[in-house]
């Protein structure tokens, strides 16, 4: 069977193809724009997106959304992480966190999957902290200022190690467990 | 005729009732939740909200959305102003603007009105600047850090004067001009 990854990012398609290679599922890239709503929970964005896509007649597809939630900033930038990265960026987050002792943060990734008429929604998480300065050159977005072990930033981790500990890795593993029950 | 103001904020209803008192229109408060989409333009939020409400069968209604757009922060917090106010607040904006010489900002208010089968969308604006510290006790949200004249903050203006210069005042005047053509 075919599972369509609805995204504008071809990198995600490759990632899902690799992750789900043990199932007899063909992964296909589909670009269908859908609205993301304003809310404080990634799950709401994903569930609403799924309803929207199903209403337009789409079946057997995957969408996802990710964000970084900083404790001392009441969850900011959260669901709006992409927008905040484009505007105030890592420099802005570091400035907001100056002199802040509580550095606690987490990355979250929510995946929604419609498969054989069933909806699966999983939330992957990675707990960590905001570093005091940008470090590393790998990855993208908030990776240079986020650390899961308090030592190395996500932008310093080899991709294999990052996938093992990251919110996306966690979400993909949760998704695989659920898919196993359906296929 | 009756025009329904769709909002969770009763203050807005009073404001529209006063503004539109010269027309023979009864203003009614309606609470219908509708999704606000993630985008960089208030107009997109409002137009999408109107489509959603019309699809649910509602006619003859008003919705609006406002935001503060800071030049040096690439328009941040913009469409997400309410969320940003709830999380990092005015202290966060001031911190992001420390040592920033370009203080330029504007407030925008977009009103969408469905009236007699016609859609009206207007965008009111108020140019100004971000102050270096919070001043004044009137108003709400970003009012203590925004000034239209470079001297007094919005939180220091008497309400009548604020309505004359504010983005909401501007938007309401634009709306009245458009309503005149329809009724």
Short description:
Two copies of one chain form a homodimer. Chain A has 183 residues and is α/β, with parallel strands linked by helices.
Q: Sketch the topology of chain A as an H/E string, one letter per element.
A: EHEHEEHHEEEHH
Mean pLDDT of chain A: 94
CA distance, first residue to last residue of chain A:
10 Å
Major beta sheet summary of chain A: 7 strands, mixed
Proportion in helices of chain A = 25-40%
Shape of chain A: globular
CA radius of gyration of chain A is 17 Å
Please state roughly what percent of the residues of chain A sit in beta strands, choosing from under 5%, 5-15%, 15-25%, 25-35%, 35-45% or over 45%: 25-35%
Low-confidence stretches of chain A: none
- Quaternary status: homodimer
Give the beta-strand count of chain A: 7
Largest interface: A-B, 23 and 23 residues
* Structure annotation, total helices of chain A: 6
Which structural class best describes the helix and strand composition of chain A? Answer: alpha/beta
């Amino acid at each position: 069977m075919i599972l369509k990854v609805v995204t504008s990012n071809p990198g995600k398609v490759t990632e899902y193809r690799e992750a789900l290679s043990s199932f007899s599922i063909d992964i296909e890239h589909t670009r269908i724009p859908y609205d993301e709503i304003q809310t404080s929970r990634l799950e709401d964005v994903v569930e609403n997106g799924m309803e929207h896509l199903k209403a337009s007649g789409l079946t057997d597809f995957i969408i996802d959304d990710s964000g970084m939630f900083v404790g001392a900033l009441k969850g900011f930038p959260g669901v709006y992480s992409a927008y905040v990265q484009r505007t105030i960026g890592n420099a802005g987050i570091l400035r907001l966190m100056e002199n802040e002792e509580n550095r606690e943060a987490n990355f979250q990734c929510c995946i929604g999957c419609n498969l054989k008429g069933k909806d699966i929604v999983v939330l992957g998480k990675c707990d960590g902290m905001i570093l005091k300065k940008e470090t590393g050159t790998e990855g993208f977005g908030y990776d240079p200022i986020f650390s899961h072990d308090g030592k190395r930033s996500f932008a310093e981790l080899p991709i294999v190690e990052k996938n093992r500990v990251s919110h996306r890795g966690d979400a993909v593993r949760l998704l695989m467990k659920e898919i196993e029950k359906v296929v």
